[in-house]
Structures are given as structure tokens and as C-alpha cells.
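Reply to dn_fold:

You asked what the input looked like. This is it:
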Amino acid sequence: MLILSPENFIELNCVYLLHKIIMMKKILYLTILLPFLGISQQKTEDLPQNKIAEAEAKSSANLVNFTENTDTDNYDLKYHRLEFNVDPSEAFISGDVTSYFVAKEDLTQVIFDLADNMEVSQVLQRGNPLSFSQSNDEVIIDLPETQAEGVLDSLTVSYSGNPISSGFGSFEQTEHDGNEIIWTLSEPYGAKAWWPCKQDLNDKIDSIDTYITSPILNSNNIENIAVSNGLEVGTTINGSLKTTHYHHSYPVAAYLIAIAVSNYSVYTHEVENNGNPFPVINYSYPENLTNAQTQTPIIVDIINFFSNHFSEYPYANEKYGQLQFGWSGGMEHQTVSFVNSFDRQLTAHELGHQWFGDKVTCASWRDVWLNEGFATYLAAMVIQDFDGEAAFTNWRAVTVAQITALPNGSVYVPAEDTTNVSRIFSSRLSYSKGAMALHMLRKKMGDEDFFQALQNYLNDDNLAYGYAHTEDLKNHFEEQSGLDLDEFFEDWIYGQGYPSYNLDWNQSLGDQVSMTLHQTQSDESVSFYEGEVPIRFIGINGEEFNTVLENTDNDQHFLVTPGFEVSSVEIDPEFDIISLNNTTNLDTLSAGFKSFIVYPNPAKSIVNISKSENLKISTIKIYNTLGQKIEEFPYKQSFSIENLSKGLYFLQCKTSEGTLNKSLLVQ
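and this is what came back:
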């Protein structure tokens, strides 16, 4: 990516590629769960994603009511120089915001978003004052001459005021342990409350420089520390004031820009990053420092874990920061997450969003699972890697229970629900079901293809530091695996509900177990869920054999040889799929079934059926040993098998007494 200095901008006069981003969200993470102890001890309402979704739904209460400001859509932002003056003891900000932008059409006015209670004192263009007005949360600036399409120019807006909080504190001045703090949390649409910006999330700024001027000491004569996105470039002292300069050289949305000033205790961990180290900078309240220092070292392991699976940390040329702030949750500001505590699961969730949410962002509310499903699953992967398979299985068990608590609902948000906050941030659907859909894809594709596809997705030139739709993710999964995932996405992402399975089985063919798998659906939007169904056989002496049935058809027949005498069969014992009320039944032969004979067997050309007169047969299906249906036809007493290749097949007969399965050897 080409990064241009401010000095270069004024000399440019070319059309830039448009960075079209529809960003959204964010994460306001509440109480985090203690490590999973056992399935029976974990309640679905205690799942971490439930707390996250609750917070995000609250934080975004005004978000879906925000109307895109078409007045700011006629220019493309390239760079901001943000010069902020704050005092942590006062709820007040003043500053100069210089914006470089390319005209997307001939411009006679330029409009920025800024809350009406903030007062603009002047607007300069290359040192010359311009006329302007303020109304309807806009700063309307009249240009002295038309700025032609494709031309780059800049404006500097000087302003001041006491920002009005929008939601959970766009700009907050509070205290901790008797020390003052100022922090921002712009949510998706809170930036305009404290600085003149382009509020719409369809235009990432290519790079920013942030200068925070604040008192060197707070009221307790303790040094203030100022923090923002990117790398700290340096500080300058002017009397009792200190100016701290940060530079961030990656595309960033307005709502992900943040500042904080307080008497932080600062300490650093280093991530080796394959010989290109970068720092994790922790900004802790002094009163929490001892506890923080015991919790934060694990962030290095989590970064390494995510980097190994998904790609290098997206902002490795700069830093990752964790800053304690005054809200009881968290917010993944680009390169520096603001957090209430340094809990491991909160750490994992906010960190994960640096890949899925900041680097690649969902393009619409309908695709919100691309952020939330991934964040939920990444946090669960930390449970798997750090706590072991039993804890991960427990997480899946409780998550599946939450998903199946209601019979309907899709991962993909329906168009009619895109103004429904609780639906967008549904813990059951956008978070949990989205995460389990990813787990099912991982099992279907295998780890190698699954994680390689995600690396391809994150590094796609059309998506990286931009936005993505669900189909973009699907295309990468298909391209990497060679699988056709149309049916999977139709069933599990766009479709509603889940299946319930019933398995009839018997071991009347020596060591072989004959099975018929039946499926019902909780919602009529899906007629049949195709997919892999894990099965476990338990032997009479405690033996165990696991297999996966490729379920492509209802009432499908399978033949498996576990190698021992089976006492019971379990469906999905490790909770790897979304399903509910699964049952297995040992098939015992009725009197009518006992009189049922297929002959000759083995056969070459013609097969005959002998049965009692009372046993009525409606249809006959022929399956191969892979469970694939070869033929289906109405009952015939005799039928030809000349079109079948040599080998073992299974006849499945729908009868008045139930389903009957018979093996057939074709010679």
C-alpha cells in the first residue's frame, strides 16, 4: 500500500481508487465466563457470546436508525491530521482537523459531520479562511472555486465544545481511583460527537496523524499518558502541556479512531512475529497494575495462535494495544482495544476482531455474522487450544443447546430485519449459529483447507482492509477445497432451523451394522439438510468406533463394519453439528419381516422378492456401500439388476411395518 505524507498530498492531482467500506459495529464486551467445567454446569444464558451480543445491541440502539448522509458521499477521504486539545479533568475538547480528500464529482461545497453543539470557529483552505455554516449535525463549507472531479485538496476545521455522549460515551470524562480520565468510544456512529469527520462508514481514511495535547500532570501531580491509534512518534513539551503524536498508516473507519488520556501505568510485551517483532503495549490503571501484569502475558500466546492460523497480525508494522477505560466492556479500536479488564476471553475476542472486523469488515448488516460468528469462534478456538478438547466440546454442547432453543432463524439476517437491533445482534443466530456453521465447515473441509481459505480471504486484495459479503467468504472456501458449498450455505447460512435425526440399526449381518438414517427439519425453509453426521458405535466390552455418514438423502441406508459386537449407537456425540432430539433404535425383525426373502443372492441379472401376503411394500431403493442412492422405484416382485456393477448393495424397502433393509451381492 502506498502511504503518502501530508506534504505530498497538496501536489497530487490524480484520481485515487475508492475505498468503499460499509463498516459496522462494535464490540462492547460484558462479563466473561469462568473456564468451562462441565456440560451439566454450563447454562446457555452464561455463554460469553450472549453477553457480547447484549452489549452490542445496546450500544447500537441508534445505529440502525442512522440515515446515510448522502451530502458526504461526493468525496473520498485520503488523510486526516487530527490535533486535539483535552484536559482529563474537563469534559471539553478543542482542536484542528485537517482533511485531505479527492473530489468524486465537481465540488462547490464540502460537508463534514459534526454535532451541532460543537462550535466551529474557522475553516481554512491552504491558509485562506472560507465561509461555512452549521446545521443538522453538519458543517457546510463553501469552496471559493469549483474543485474538479479527481482533484485532491485539503481543509482545516477548527472547533471546540463539550461533546454530548451518544449511547455508551462517544467522549467521556470520568475518574478512576481519584484520578481523571478522558476516553472515547465512537461506536459505529459516535465520531461526529467529538470531531468533524465523515460519519458514513463507506470511506476508510488511508492514514492518520493524531496529536493529543494535554496537561503533563493530573490533579494529583501524576503524569498523564495520552494514547491513540498506531505508533507513538514522539512527544513535545510546552510549559505545563505535553503533545503526544501518533501515526497510523492503515485504512481506518472514523468510528475506529480513538483517544484516551489518564495516569496510565504502561508496560510492554514483545511478539516475536517470525523475526519482525512488534510490541503489545498495555495501559493499565495503576490501582489494577499488579493484577493486570499477571493476566496480560497470555496475549502474546493468543496473537501467535491467531497469526499461525489466519495470517500475520494485520498491523504488525505498528503495535497492538490494550487500554483500560471506564466502560464495563470493550471496543476493538484499530491497533488499540479499549477494555474494562484484561480477562483472557475478552482479550481473545477484541484481538480477533483486528482480523475479522477491522482488516476485513462485513459489508452490510445482513452479513454481520462475518464479524460476530468469527469473533465467537476465535474465542472458542482459544478455549480448545488453551483448555483442551473437553472444554471445547463443552462449549459446543452449550452453544448448540442455545441455537436449538427455538426452531427457526438463519445466520444471514433477512432484509426485513436489518432495522431490528435485537435480530442483527442475535446471540443465538449471528454469534452462536454463525460460529457453529464455521465449525461445521472446518470439519467438512478439514483444518488445512479451512484455515488456508481464511488466510486467502483475509489477504484477498479486493477484501483486505476493506469489506466482504458472505459470498466472498463462500467463494474462498470453495476455491480452496474444491467443494461445491451451495447446498451448505443455502441450508446453514441462508436457511433457518436445524435437523433432528433418528437412526434405525441392527447387526444381523455378522460384524456389519445396517443403518437407516431419518431426518426431520425444525423449519420448512429447508427441505433437507445435507451434510456429515458423526456416529459412534459402543461395543459390549466398551469398544468405541467413530465414523461419519455423508447424509445426502432422507431415509438413507448405510452399512458399517465397526469390528466388534455393538451394544449402542450415538449420533453426534461430540456436538460437531447443529441438531436436536437425536435418537437411535435397535431394529428388531417383526413376523412380517422374518418372512421377507431376497433371492437369488448373490444375483447376476434378476432379483426376486418373497414375502408374506400381509406385508405391503410401497417403494424399493438401492444404495451402494457409500450410502449413495442408485435407484428408486415402486415395489416389484421381480426386477432387473443388469445395469449395476459387481459389488455389494443394499435394498431399502418401505413397508407397512416400517423400513426393511437387505444386503444384495451382484456378481
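Residues 1-40, 62-67 have pLDDT under 50 and may be disordered.
Hope that clears it up.
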